[in-house]
Fold this sequence. Notes:
Layout: E1 5-9, H1 14-23, E2 28-33, H2 36-45, E3 50-53, H3 59-69, E4 73-76, H4 83-88, H5 90-110, E5 117-123, H6 132-149, E6 155-161, E7 163-164, H7 171-180, E8 185-188, E9 194-198, H8 200-212, E10 220-223, E11 227-229, H9 230-240, E12 247-250, E13 262-264, E14 272-274, E15 279-282, E16 296-297, H10 305-314
Parallel strand pairs: 1-2, 1-4, 2-3, 4-5, 5-6, 6-10, 7-9, 8-12
Antiparallel strand pairs: 9-11, 10-15, 13-16, 14-15
Amino acid sequence: xxxxxxxxxxxxxxxxxxxxxxxxxxxxxxxxxxxxxxxxxxxxxxxxxxxxxxxxxxxxxxxxxxxxxxxxxxxxxxxxxxxxxxxxxxxxxxxxxxxxxxxxxxxxxxxxxxxxxxxxxxxxxxxxxxxxxxxxxxxxxxxxxxxxxxxxxxxxxxxxxxxxxxxxxxxxxxxxxxxxxxxxxxxxxxxxxxxxxxxxxxxxxxxxxxxxxxxxxxxxxxxxxxxxxxxxxxxxxxxxxxxxxxxxxxxxxxxxxxxxxxxxxxxxxxxxxxxxxxxxxxxxxxxxxxxxxxxxxxxxxxxxxxxxxxxxxxxxxxx
Length: 319
């Protein structure tokens, strides 16, 4: 992306920082977030962007920044995303993950003359959701899909992907901290649990592809990912820190947590386009009569232990 005015909502999060790192040199960027301390820290590293305090739950703050900055592209990364936090705070989650998106869509309608693209970042937890976070993101997906249907001059693109390896709240620093403090055992909620994993750079590649694709308007772009057993993930982290003999102890599965995650449900496969070797797109019209297609579920695409270790080594997680 070059020569664009880009507004990143929730821009002080891990994804927002990485987007800024990639786009800062060739674009003008506005970082919109509610955390002044994170903005201060980020400004030391990236002094060029414009920084504005605001909240997706405050429509006027969104509108003021949009009128001031006049963005060509808006990327909404803001979310209340920790599963247990969302479970314990459903009302606040609704305000951020649903109402906040409606406010943004309303603001885009009002400022439509200056905006060419609106991008929404979703999650695999929106697929067949069982927790407040996933349900809220699933509803938000539908809001953007519906908004896209009425658009002829603003491109609306959606991206859905799995757990980001080096994002805020990732298990990597948690496991590393536990091991570095001398623990002989790591807590695991289930020895069978699997997750789809993606790096921040891969997530940004997906976002850029969605932005550039002529066919992604109103569709959910999904990467073709392999999954990993959480035990193999934990063992790889321990091995990288010289703790090959690490043990594991089971803890109760947390409220709202899934054993396996889905990127595309069996029902959604009726609307899937297999666009290339890396991505699928979920449209809003049925084009696939294969009702029996199994879902893109982390249970069915698991790497073996050696593949998992090589994957994490290649992604720089074990460095």
